[in-house]
Amino acid sequence: MAAKAHSSRSMGQGGRTDWCLHILIFCCFQFREWANNIRGWWYHCFFVRTKATQIKDYSMMPDHDMTKFIIMGVAGSGKSSVGSALARELGAVFIDGDDMHPKENIAKMSSGRPLTDDDRNPWLQNIGMALNSNIGTVVIACSALKKIYRDIIREASGQAVMFIHLAGSFELIEDRMAHRTDHFMLPDLLKSQFSILENPVIPECFIEIDIGQSIEAVVEEVLHNVSFLC
To answer: I need a labelling partner for 37 at 20 to 30 A (CA). Which of 22, 75, 115, 155 fits?
Structure first.
């Protein structure tokens, strides 16, 4: 009887050992999953968001399949140059938003008069519809200075749009504008653009890039962040 009792106790201890081992293995796998999640969160919050180019908010990109891009910023920030170079790298269609302005808008800006929101509304609608009508990846250069302008574009496009904000100081862009001969906006209008500029903020979907570097470096940073998303 003593032997049987001892045997029963041994079997009981063996069962408890197996049970504890299973729990330990489960906890190890669970811990590894938690660690991966924490590492991904840390990378997103501390690595991506501290770069000169920052990916801002994923809530408007449910499938991360981003194919519609607006290169935004004040005049002289390099929207057309960066946009065309980015489109070549992505194999995308590039559209210069300035070409979609009504003739009245071009004449008004050429005479030194800033556009009103009423002037811009049909232009922004055209840009949003161009994103919608072109199949595949599309890159459009458009100032999109105010949030309401970006909202009009998003609504007209009917889909998620990534705004790539080319950001620079007034002094840097003023110097660039002073040396340009191929643009119909006068440098004197730069102050008015800065005065109405509303930098994108969460929950808008955007990347902000410092333009105090070469176009090649700007495009490389955009491509890095786009590849991280898509």
So the answer is: 22
Higher pLDDT, 47 or 205: 205
pTM score, two decimals?
0.69
Mean pLDDT of 108-128: 89
Assess whether 183 and 195 both reside in one domain. Answer: yes
Are 127 and 156 a contacting pair, CB within 8 Å?
yes
Quick one: angle between helices 215-229 and 79-90, nearest 10?
50
Per-residue pLDDT averaged across 56-60, rounded? 40
Claim to verify: residue 41 and residue 60 sit in the same structural domain: no
The total of structural domains in the chain comes to 2
